[in-house]
Amino acid sequence: MNSGKWKIVGYVLLFAAFLTPGPAHGQEEHKAQSKPRVVLFGINGAEWDIIKPLLLRGEMPNLARVIERGVSGKMRTISAPNCPKIYSIFETSTPPQENGITGFLVHGATANTSMLRTQPLWSLLSQNGVSVGMANVPATFPAKPVNGYMISGMLTRGKDCEDGVLCSPKVSEVTRGDAVYPRSMVQELEKNVGDFHIDCARMPEAKDLPGHEVATVYSWLAQVTKIREEQRRLFDYLLANHPTDFTFFVQSCEDRVGHWLYPIQPYNVGYNSKVHTIQVNAFPDQYRAMDKVLGTILRHVDENTVLMIISDHGIKPLREGESHAAHMDHGGTTPIIAKHDFEDGDDVPGVFIAMGPGIKKGVRVTGLPMSVFDIAPTILHFYGIAQPPQMQGRVLTEIFEDAGTGVTTSASAPD
Ligand SMILES: [Zn+2]
Fold this sequence. Notes:
There is one protein chain. The chain is α/β, with parallel strands linked by helices and 415 residues long. It has helices at residues 5-19, 24-33, 48-56, 61-68, 83-92, 96-99, 121-127, 185-192, 213-241, 253-261, 273-276, 282-298, 375-382; strands spanning 37-43, 71-75, 105-106, 109-110, 132-137, 148-152, 180-181, 246-251, 305-310, 316-317, 338-339, 350-355, 363-365. The longest helix has 29 residues, at 213-241. The model is unreliable at 1-5, 7-32 and 406-415 (pLDDT under 50). Bound molecules: zinc ion (ZN). Residues 45, 255, 259, 330, 340 line the site of zinc ion.
């Protein structure tokens, strides 16, 4: 079970350096002050096709501000992308077959952190004295020890959660592992943020829809709005009260709403006038709401902070010959109108946006030179940590004003 060597080494170092009070503690704290600050914000399935018209209409002012002050472009994903696969690539820069997270289900069991076979970013950063804060990142359950905190995300297990199927437990409903590291933080969060949901709401099931379409769409969207606000408050609280060198937050409601209520015209595969005429703004509304969450995050981002906004893939309407009845990744019980697990990953590129010290301003990267494999090496680069040989991505040198040579003042970085 505990086959990965990195785990043993990582935990020993972690416990020695950070979890045991000792004379080195103050020194580490002092060192931490001079480290770069990086905030990574993941938006599941963020799709440029939806974002661009909203930007043009001035309906995503916060995102517009970041794009204007930074570098933006598409991000290449892999074939048949889905959240657990790609978030595990973000963290390991290794393909699913190597890092062990090949989908929602791995050998019949829900993807989880104990299955990771290559060392993830949060472990590498922790080992190197970088403080780490994470919340709602997919496939990070059970939460593992880090030099900071970790609050799990999509695929957290709770009561009535079937294997490999999306679920949305509250913190108090989590079973089969810890959703929060350190455990002592649970009480603090429940007191200050409330008993929040770990993931966005699960989509309604096909069998519950006939005759109840309007009520189901509205009540489901109300739940989505409630969860997004819980997550916004969580992020706000964490950034204000537990600042870390590296922070990684994720929201998942965009993807969920897109699968079900992508605003497209009739004659597309899966179009159902009983469902798709009820709330035609549901999907773009998610981006308007996400922009407000970004506004909250931006209140904690100063001129010395790097902010990166990424998505694991985009999402597009179904095409001729594709079934709307089954979408196994999300349980296979919800009728969908859009998806992302197309065989050609280049059909559904993700989003990459970065701004901060040393990063080019107002630059758009064209084509698909930036890949989901490049996130971990680029984050390591900020902290001057050498890229481990198993990582297959590269440092995104083209985003830096000085081609990536002088971003960090600590140890030299790989190129
Ligand atoms: Zn999805």
